[in-house]
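Risk register update: the risk of archive-format incompatibility is retired. Evidence:
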Amino acid sequence: MGGTPAILPIALLAASALIMNVAWYWHLKHPSWGMLAAIGAAWGIALFEYTLAVPANRIGIAHYSLAELKTIQEVLSLGAFVLVAWALFGQTPGPSQLLGFALIAGGAFMIFKSPLG
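Archived output:
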């Protein structure tokens, strides 16, 4: 695994994040579905998401710390959320949400650059 490129876990996590956001929110487009149907659809999608997330983390640990892997996953999840919210619901982030995302980006910087030691 050490010979795999460091970008591979990021690509897998990006795909995983997109699929997971679809699992979390796609059923909202179908309010007539019962709760069990919505849960079943979400779990079915999430099962596929795990086939990407697990290898991403197993490969990624050769290149990143656990904190870095989690940070990558969270940042990609937020990016995927914005895409899913726009594509499925026509919603875009407002100024306060953009500021919040910027603050999260600042936190990600702190994880990767370790400016405080």
